[in-house]
Amino acid sequence: MKRSFAALWLAAAWAGGCGGDPPAAEPGGFAEKNWPAEAEALLAGSDWYRHAVFYEVYVRSFQDSDGDGVGDLKGLESRLDYLKELGVDALWLMPILETPFFDSGYDVADYLAVNPDYGTEEDLESLLDAAHARGMRVIMDLVLNHTSAAHSWFVESRADRTNAKADWYVWSDTPSHPDNGCGTQSGVFGDSAWEYDAGRGQYYFHRFYPEQPDLNYRSPAVVEATLGVARHWLDRGVDGFRCDVIGLLHESATECEMLPATVDYIRELRAVVDEYPGSVLVAEPSKLTDATAYFGDGADMFHMAFHFGYGYFWGFPFGAGSAAPITDTFAASLERFPVGAQDALVIGSHDVARAYAVAQGDDTRHRRAAWIQLTARGTPYVYYGEELALRPGTDEVVDLRDTARTPMLWDGTPGHGFTTGTPWLAFGAEADTFHLAAEREDPTSMWAFYRDLLRLRRGRAVWGTGEMELLETGTTTVFAFHRADAFMAYVVAVNLTPDEVTARLARADLGERAERVIGSGTLALDASGADLVLPGAGAAVFRVR
Ligand code: NOJ
Ligand code: MG
Q1: Were both Cys, which of 38, 287, 323, 514 would link to 523 (CB 3.0–4.6 Å)?
Q2: Phi and psi at residue 214, in whole multiples of 5°?
């Protein structure tokens, strides 16, 4: 089933640069004291998602509970305490519904049935209960642009041209369409976006693999059916959705993303979600450099949208030792977003190379990238295993992206605590060295770094909702910003290069006194700004009020 995969976003994030051999950053660091009551209060309110730390889970690769080599819902439930300890407040489950697995579950064959590889509906219910009992939330992937060709809707639609679902998909007599195809007839995953179907003697449109026909949202029945899918899972206690390529629902001959009709649909979806207080939507924007269109007036579309301008491109600025691309992408969202919009901050996902690979194996580069992700304005989404600096694998079952989807490494046993059987996908590199059991014992490990930084966020509203102001540094090699709310303020600074750097932060009223709470380097405040020194490959968070 292995496929050749050539999406442009993969290539973009895969590339790094060369930055020489930076010295190791100072190990350890410390976090400020714990604020459990404040944390609980922030996570219980309607703004909980702004204060939460999300964790993206590939259920198939996280924890197997029955020895079949495939991760499952019961396995995930057994690891909730681990996630809680790490500082995770909410889970995003990649697709867990029935699928022939041509695209790792992003080809849904039944929107209402749990994939039996992962368990039963009771297992899901049990997972939701167990998460909620710990004050954690769970959102699911909602894949609405297309179904699997094995979905009963498509089976019916392709049978002939007159059946009840004949117009549920995008059919055409030619491999093109006057009202569809957005100016290109090629799909994301291959040459043509049109596949000939002998049954109908017509072509159907598929933005992704041929096994993923696009639904036709011009049909009111499709709109009703898919909104019903959202309702179904919200009724069962799911806390919201990560919406897969949601901007692509409608297309015209020239445009494919966020057409007015797609925007209307999203508003309808948001209205459904609003019937379930506390539920949230996070968008996967297709335009990687600007998610503004997904926020509407700030309250009528998405609660969050992924910030790919940073998350999928940080390899370039770190490789080049230049802060400018990072400054530009954050400046753009700070400027353009409506009040209420919230960035969803990542440094990786199931679609791109592992952070370890993007950092070119440079531990400090990975840490500095995460540093920005976890302290900039927004809600962080940690991709499972990122906290261990999981190395890429080489095995491919579906396509190249499997190299970033290898099973979690819990310990040094042959099945690495993931399975007692044979893993469905081979473990990644250096599996005997970089696993949780070993990293937990090592105060200088990536895991310890994530734990400390996540602890620093807990109970402090400023990280989720405080103002973020980008700071002039007088140098091209430092990215620095100020975070503040009514109660506290911080300065965060990251050195993009392997060399020690001094910078002048020219902004009055930065704060009252500077105390470094994590990282390395110094900040000396004065009336008109501050002098900053960061060691090579260093970064720091300073409390200034
Ligand atoms: C985006 C998902 O993240 C990716 O994994 C998938 O292949 C495509 N959408 C198609 O669903
Ligand atoms: Mg299993």
Answers
A1: 514
A2: -75, 135
442 within 8 A of 436, measured Cβ to Cβ? no
How many Cα atoms sit within 13 Å of 262 on the Cβ side?
25
pLDDT-based confidence at 152, cuts 50/70/90?
Answer: very high
Identify the three-state secondary structure at position 401: helix
Distance 143 CA to ligand 1 centre (A): 8
For a mutational test of ligand 1's pocket, the pick from 97, 208, 400, i.e. the residue with the most ligand atoms closer than 8 A to its C-beta, is 208
- Residue 394's pLDDT is what? 98
Retrieve residue 399's tokens. 């396509």
Q: What is the pLDDT of residue 25?
A: 33
Residue 191 above 90 pLDDT? Answer: no
CA distance 516 to 528: 20
Q: Can you give the pLDDT at residue 22?
A: 28
Residues annotated catalytic, as ranges: 244, 284
Residue whose CA lies nearest to ligand 1 atom number 8: 106
The domains found in the chain, sorted by start residue, are: 49-144+238-461 (3.20.20.80), 152-205 (3.90.400.10), 466-543 (2.60.40.1180)
Q: Please list the alpha-helical segments (H only) found in 360-466.
A: 363-375, 436-441, 446-457, 461-465
pLDDT digits (tens, 9 = 90+) for 68-105: 999 999 999 999 999 999 999 999 999 999 999 999 99
**244 CA → ligand 1 middle, Å:** 6
Report pLDDT digits (tens) over 242-268: 999 999 999 888 888 999 999 999 999
Residues in contact with ligand 1 (CB, 6 Å cut-off): 103, 106, 143, 208, 244-245, 284, 350-351
CA of 422 to the centre of ligand 2 (A): 10
Residue 7 predicted with pLDDT over 80 = no
Structure tokens at 123: 């297992």
Checking if the pLDDT of 5 tops 70, the result is no
Cα–Cα distance between 264 and 449 in angstroms, integer? 43
CA distance 258 to 269: 14
Nearest Cα residue to atom 2 of ligand 1: 244
Calpha distance 202→196 (Å, rounded) = 6
